Amino acid sequence: MAKAFFRLQKFLRRTQFLLFFLTAAYLMAGSLLLLQRTRLVLQQGPRGTPSNQALPVPEEMGRLGIIEPRTLQSPGPRLLVHMDALQEPALDQQHSPHWLVSRNSELRQLRRRWFHRFTSDQEPLQTAGFKAMKHTAEHKGTYMGCFTHDSRERTLKGAVFYDLRKMTVAHCQEACAERAYSYAGLAYGAECYCGNSLPAAAAKPEECNIECKGEKGSVCGGVSRLSVYGVEELRAPARRRKNVIYRGCFRAPENITDTFPASLIQPNLTVEMCSEFCSKKEFPLAVIRGQECYCGYPTRRFPLREGTDGLRCSGAHNASTAAGGQDCLVYQTPVQDTRCTDRKFLTTKSKVFVALSSFPGAGNTWARHLIEHATGYYTGSYYFDGALYNKGFKGEKDHWRSRRTICVKTHESGKTEIEMFDSAILLIRNPYKSLMAEFNRKYAGHLGYATDHNWKSKEWPDFVNSYASWWASHVLEWLKYGKRLLVVHYEDLKQSLIPKLKEMVEFLNVTVTEDRLLCVENNRDGNFKRSGAKQKNFEPFTQEMKDLINRYILTVDEALRGRNFSGLPREYVPR
Questions:
Q1: Could you count the other beta carbons within 10 Å of the beta carbon of residue 376?
Q2: Where do the H-state alpha helices sit in 281-430?
Q3: Distances from the Cα of 170 to the Cαs of 173, 175, 230, 430, 449, in angstroms?
Q4: Strand partners, 263
Q5: Would you list the DSSP string of 522-548?
């Protein structure tokens, strides 16, 4: 009996030691993982990994031939061969990619990079000893006070801007003044609202207590509170004229006074006079017929789709000689069309999980802008891109599987990643344009252009050799594994915006009004046009590059037709 008890005691001691050892090993592994993640955040810095900074790649992959050793030393893209591609039967070697590339590891690093940024610096400023900010001393506009802010019925219902990293009082004032608004209001430390009339309900000064995201010591409103400034004195006449865009000569609607909600009759009417009048009334269109000025929106009665011959509006830019009969001159004022800017998350989880899939550089962000404004719902993203979140894509911070967004952006390919979705909008763009757009994004951000030095460096040929096959493999794999697809060509969407957008909205099972679609068309560009000097007659592709890309074009075109989709647009035809 004693011997058996001794053996049991010995066994329990050994088990206790084993459990202690396993627990210690588990804690050590967790500590090492935490230290590694901390080091990664420190390397990224306060703004995250720059667009042209590659993520680390294990040396073993280079030695195995998965990644060329030279790519480990260059600032170009670090690409991994997708494991599914290695296991799939080889495609036709004449036209098809001989290997399929994917940035899964690089892109997945983006998913949660920005989360910690939204949980920090969010607390309101302490109000002790903080009565109000130093308004007139630091900023050009006139501080009007703290007001209540109702997001559903806004008084400042003009343009809306977001910048959750760099918003300052001066930035908001300048943005509103550029668009000819009289007032600029800031809320939640990062949101800027413009308008021409003050909010009705004032709030206590201390309730505007959230610090500006881009300016320490300054206040940018509060929770449901606006810090409002008058910016009338900042609006220079030259700047106002600069922001008026000529839309063309159009046939006037039959009952013009019923079509437009505001009007003015003025002798010697000028474009500046009409635009200023309509801007104050907060309308995006200024319509001139002789000495008559009308303000309003694009509507079914006045859709601005088919212009008339410019000769019918003689002196198109001189209102005093404009046609006074059936035709009228139309100008775009600096005021934003806000009929389609309200967006929200889905109130109930979506039953259908929809992807908005594209190769990078194919216009995915622009398509999200159109979908959000057409449907009124946010789009999600497989990645966390802080730059896009800062500009108003609030679905960026929502988990991509939350099903609270109307669709989810993804550049992923591969059987597993594709079959997670119930259906998808597959956005395809000319590979020549896509490659250039993605190269610009890598070296100059979403809205910039790469420099001559970038294009002439060795990174550009390496980039084309790697990414051209990815363009093809992305489409081929979605055609193979996608359950329910709507194929949309970027060029068709750009040329026939409303018909194609209608198809996309119907695919998403959302009903929208014609006026909302016209509002989207009026705001079609959003803030997604690249700035800076664009090179004219620029041809970065060598003949060898063209031969490579053209083979992929033929492969994708054949695959689309094989799935009973229309082939690639004519402009994709090999050069």
A1: 16
A2: 364-375, 386-390, 415-419
A3: 5, 9, 12, 40, 26
A4: 294
A5: HTTTTT-S--SPPPTT-----HHHHHH
The phi, psi pair for 45, rounded to 5°, reads 80, 180
Closest of 476, 479, 442, 444 to residue 101, by C-alpha: 476
pLDDT in tens, 402-414: 999 999 999 999 9
Choose between 291 and 7: higher pLDDT.
291
Q: What's the chain's Rg over C-alpha atoms?
A: 28
| Residue range 298-351, pLDDT digits in tens | 998 898 877 777 676 765 444 444 445 688 999 998 888 888 888 899 999 999
- CA-based nearest residue to 390, from 214, 226, 216, 524: 214
CA distances for 553 relative to 465, 482, 543, angstroms: 14, 20, 15
CA nearest to 440, candidates 361, 535, 529: 361
The C-alpha atoms of residue 230 and residue 506 are separated, in whole angstroms, by 43
pLDDT tens-digit readout, 526-562: 765 655 556 556 788 999 999 999 999 999 999 999 9
The amino acid present at 391, given as its one-letter code, is K
CA dist 15 → 18, 27, 28, 29 (Å): 5, 18, 20, 21
Q: Give the span between the Cα atoms of 575 and 567, in whole angstroms.
A: 17
Does 57 score more than 70 pLDDT? no
Residue 101, pLDDT > 50, answer: no
